[in-house]
Amino acid sequence: MAKRKQAREIVLKYEGRLTRTRGYQTAGADLLKKLSRVLYNIVVLFIPWEVRIKKIESHFGSGVASYFIFLRWLFGINIVLTIMTGAFIVLPEAVIPPGTFNAILIRDRCWSPYSESSVKSLSNI
């Protein structure tokens, strides 16, 4: 009789954890945690020099690792600026034929002290 009472107390104590739905929820949560960890490990593989920096950090400490992380950040900024320069300066210069805009700019906006408009503006003085 005492064992039966003890078993009933255990069942009542852990009843919420012993249901089939709760078991599925727990298994699903565990699977989600494992999956997110695997995906995080895959993402870490694509970060440049992450594994090597971690190895350096394990040998020499976080101060040295932060220096290399800063260098990696500078390298990334340099890559972004190179792409922007190529996209907005080099590529248009390569695609547009030479002399297309230069003739328009020289004819319309070039100012010369000997131009007709500047001589007329000074003649009123």
From TrEMBL:
One of its GO terms (cellular component) is plasma membrane. InterPro entries: TMC. The keyword Transmembrane applies. Keywords: Membrane, Transmembrane, Transmembrane helix. One of its GO terms (molecular function) is mechanosensitive monoatomic ion channel activity. The chain crosses the membrane at residues 64-91. This is Uncharacterized protein. It comes from Pleuronectes platessa.
